[in-house]
Design a protein that fits this description.
It is a single chain. It is built from 21 helices and two strands. It is an all-alpha fold. The longest helix is centred in the first third of the chain and has 28 residues.
Length: 482
Amino acid sequence: MIRTRVILGYLGRIILIIGISMLSSVLCSLYYRESIIIPFSLAAGVTIVTGLLLVFSAEKQAIHYKEGFVIVSLGWLLASLFGSLPYIFTGCLPSFADAFFETVSGFTTTGASVITNVEATPKGLLFWRSLTQWLGGMGIIGLFVAIISGMGAQANHLFKAEVPGPVASKISPRVRETAKKLWITYIILSVCCAVLLYLFGMDIFDSLCHTFATMATGGFSTRNASIGYYDSPLIQWTLTIFMFIAGVNFTLHYLGFKQRNLQVYLKNREFLFYTAIVVVASLLVSLSLSLGGSELSTEGKVRAAFFQVVTIVTTTGYSSVDFELWPNMALGIIFLMMFVGGCAGSTGGNIKPGRYLILLHRSIIEIKRIIHPKAVISLRFNDRIISDSLLINVLQFFFLYIMFLALGTIGLSCLDIDLITSLTAAASCLGNIGPGLGQVGPMDNYSFIADGGKYLLSLLMLVGRLEIYPLLLLFLPDFWRE
């Protein structure tokens, strides 16, 4: 039986983390002497008080496996609800649908926005907008597990329900230690990114906000023209490299640094496959730009190609140019990259190369069995034998992913939105990417969509970030039975 008061206690702690995080954005508004300080402080106060009330009124007991899924799913939903308060209390966004959409987009690291004039938005809110992505990148629940002591085996239930990818990877037998080391790695890389962006020309505010968005593969920018505002090859290459890094399993980063050995990366098949996809797709886009008569220099074509391929593959969603003006071949490759994603254990969303590898290897095995019917061939992934149950899980994930994509596309089409916009908006939000094509292209946003469409896309973002199952379980009657 699901114990409500026990769950509320854990949810209260998550809300408390969100409220305390808001205070840093309040300090940012104080520094820039903005007029939103009082309403912003009120939003933080309401969030902190609510979190404390839930914590002190709850039962302190160990959670069960099912309760872990409930806490993860509701934790992300409540984080998005309370994270919307700064937008609502300050009057920055005109409706709750807009505020909720923007916040969900932040925490899920999607980067789809309804703000039409980013540069006119108070810096305190822009800082909060970027911070939501950074918190969501490594995972709100992961942060919760990392900083809350004494959880024991309970942490495993929460960590498993949130960590993306077909095969979970752990650094330490203790889940809390794994979460802590991953977050430390995340922070160190974020500091490196921020320092380089500052050295290459961004001011401190922009370098911090773009670091939050880059390492989280989120894509929110402080500029209306996104990264196109910075006509700097050094900044664009720096962002390309750190987006690529953020799309790699952070366990590999930790182990590679600890062991001082690049073989950690080279032995990981998903990393090699991910790298191959990025390199091949980028070179093909560069070729397309050359054949299409682009006026960019050779370095400019290569830089633009790698930047846009990496930002879409890793689900970051920045734009350095309006790629909708590119030749059809380049546009087709960019569209296909919307269904790839970062590696398992990265901050990137989407389907992930690991799942494609598992299905590709399984297809090869089936072809071999046609030739050698009596052969016994095991399906392996990074030197691990993949069980039939995991293979079925991957197949089910693909089916459900396509189903949600189709339902999202139909739902948006019912709002009289054209097919290209509907399809790419649904794909972009489900894959946590941000920009799409048509009316939601790299130079556009999602503000024109009706409130119903924004709620639908918000749901797709949450489904994509939690990789379908945790959220879907809440709607199954059998899940709530003892």
